[in-house]
Design brief:
The chain contains 15 helices and 20 strands. The protein is an alpha/beta fold and about 575 residues long. Strand 16 (about 360-365) and strand 17 form a beta hairpin. It is globular.
């Protein structure tokens, strides 16, 4: 067993920003940062478009109150407004801090940080580094951490969160390179493990986004919040599913259907292509449903629409959004300077997650928290995104609440005692679990079962949902869960066994999938990204509240708790 004052699981933006804040406030604190990839290969590097902040460099009429209102309205009024106020108020300070750390933001001619329009935002407030903003920020955070007392456990996979008597005490980790198991004990544990896009078959997320932290939390008997709210990004590159950033539309690209029509005029006439993501995704899905999608040969009735950049010109495309041009060219053979890009909605972001307080403390239920356990970033739900996240607010949440949670941990360490922990039972149970996977003699390969799980979620819990579809999905998922015992590993090595890793990730995907479906079935309304064709209206009377889902062997138990309303009363959401 190894001891660290703080164990951070996840090497992306939220985890690194929290670690940096702890190092600043308590510079001699022993910190372990555990990640299943190298930190700068975390999915945060894929964030392209930007980070929102009311710097007023382009629009001097902007304000934090306007940013907060846009965020709450974008959330379909499910966001906790005290959390949103902190997000909007802290945004300018954290962006300037990132600049001082060395982040190379794109500039205006006078040298100030440039800002571009983004979907759902009423002002031009999104700061950016071309279309590689997450990459620029994460690299600088990691470089700044190297001078502090941080031990990096790169390419270690965390198998279990250890919680005893409502106190987080440690984690069990598996070294991918050597197969060694280790128990890490800590006064404070922070989960910053990212999202779960790989539970669906088409996603912008990388292969590591398998909901590990969420599943471990659920298995520990703790709730997950608002998991039914899955964001579909409107412009996933067809057929690969990777992201064509919202920055492209922010720079002026059009969405057109088979008739060459800018169809967003029918769905969000005041915002057009810069409507919030849930509205734009449903608009694209509806166009495809109605036969106005496009086939690869250019005829009508196909599975995608076009994102048209041609009018923007080569210079703008290559200077403002070069990575998006590169992705379309590399993965679809499209030269976006002279050809439109085929796009359709792709799973992108999890609005829900591990429920936390404003200090990042994890909730055991609506009233109490777990001692020594914290979460931040996409795996957490504070909740600033509610039922739908606005673009460029995700990087902002990682930095604002990563910093805030890091500060809370630095403060709390003074009164958090070293937990009593016997590591042997946990190490032994982990060893037995791995040996059991090796010993299984089934005839099912992991990739086949994973594909069936992903197809199940896509078919039964997609952009449009009904009770009949989701009940069918839950039944199918139970069958797939039972088939997990039939998987067979062809590789029995303990060294760099990626097949073993995929088996462990698949078990986590199954947990997350069941919780998403259960929460979506219970929420009998349409709100934000959760659209029920059998309940097409928002129902504030019965469902202006957060879902708390508890994972149990016999199914998922659903509870609710109130939304914090401090600034804005709910109103009709039109654009």
């Amino acid at each position: 067993m190894q001891d660290f004052a703080v164990v951070i699981v996840g090497g992306g933006l939220a985890g690194c920003r929290a670690a940096l804040e702890i190092c600043r406030l308590a510079p001699h604190t022993p910190i372990a940062l555990v990640a299943k990839t190298h930190p700068i290969r975390s999915h945060s590097v894929a964030a392209q478009g930007g980070i929102a902040a009311t710097l007023k460099n382009v629009d001097d009429q902007d304000s934090w109150e306007s940013h907060a209102f846009d965020t709450v309205k974008g959330s379909d009024f499910l966001a906790d407004q005290d959390a949103v106020a902190i997000l909007a108020q802290d945004a300018p300070d954290v962006v300037i801090d990132l600049e001082h750390l060395g982040v190379l933001f794109s500039r205006l001619p006078d040298g100030r940080i440039a800002q571009r329009p983004f979907g759902g935002h009423s002002h031009q407030r999104t700061c950016y580094a071309a279309d590689k903003t997450g990459h620029a920020i994460l690299h600088e955070l990691y470089c700044n951490l190297l001078k502090y007392n941080v031990t990096f456990f790169s390419e270690w996979y965390v198998l279990q969160l250890i919680v005893e008597d409502q106190q987080a005490k440690g984690v069990v980790a598996y070294h991918i390179e050597t197969g060694r198991l280790e128990v890490l004990r800590a006064k404070a544990i922070l989960f910053a493990t990212g999202g779960y896009g790989r539970v669906f078959n088409t996603t912008s997320n990388d292969f590591a986004s398998t909901g590990d932290g969420l599943a471990m939390t659920a298995r520990a008997g703790l709730p997950l919040e608002d998991m039914e709210f899955v964001q579909f990004h409107p412009t996933g590159l067809y057929p690969a599913g990777v992201l064509i950033s919202e920055a492209v539309r922010g720079e002026g690209a059009y969405l057109i259907n088979a008739a060459g029509e800018r169809f967003m005029a029918h769905y969000a006439p005041s915002r057009m292509e810069l409507a919030p993501r849930d509205i734009t995704s449903r608009a694209i899905a509806t166009e495809i449903r109605l036969g106005r999608g496009i086939h690869p040969d250019g005829t009508a009735g196909g599975p995608f629409v076009y994102l048209d950049l041609r009018h923007m010109g080569r210079d703008t495309i290559m200077s403002r959004i070069p990575f998006c041009w590169e992705e379309a060219h590399r993965l679809a053979g499209v030269d976006a300077v002279v050809e439109p890009i085929p796009v359709r909605p792709t799973v992108h972001y999890s609005m829900g997650g591990i429920p936390v307080t404003l200090r990042g403390q994890v909730r055991a239920n609506a009233a109490t928290t777990v001692t020594g356990f914290y979460a931040a970033g996409e795996c957490a739900c504070v909740s600033v995104h509610g039922a739908n996240r606005l673009g460029s607010n995700s990087l902002l949440e990682c930095v604002v609440y990563g910093r805030r949670t890091g500060a809370a941990i630095a403060t709390d360490l003074a009164h958090l005692a070293w937990p009593d922990l016997n590591p042997q039972p946990y190490r032994q149970a982990a060893e037995q679990h791995l040996e059991q996977l090796f010993a299984q003699q089934g005839d099912l390969r992991i990739a086949h079962l994973r594909q069936q799980v992903q197809d199940c979620m896509t078919n039964y819990c997609g952009v449009f949902r009904t009770a009949e579809l989701m009940q069918q999905g839950l039944q199918e998922l139970q069958t797939l869960k039972s088939r997990y015992q039939q998987i067979r590993l062809g590789d029995h090595s303990r060294y760099w066994n990626t097949e073993l890793l995929e088996a462990l990730e698949l078990a986590n995907l199954l947990v997350v999938a069941e919780i998403i479906l259960a929460g979506a079935l219970a929420r009998q309304e349409s709100r934000g990204a959760h659209f029920r064709e059998d309940y097409p209206q928002r129902d504030d009377t019965n469902f202006l509240r957060h879902t708390l889902a508890f994972y149990r062997p016999d199914g998922v138990a659903i509870d609710y708790f109130p939304v914090t309303m401090t600034l804005f009363a709910p109103q009709e959401r039109t654009y």
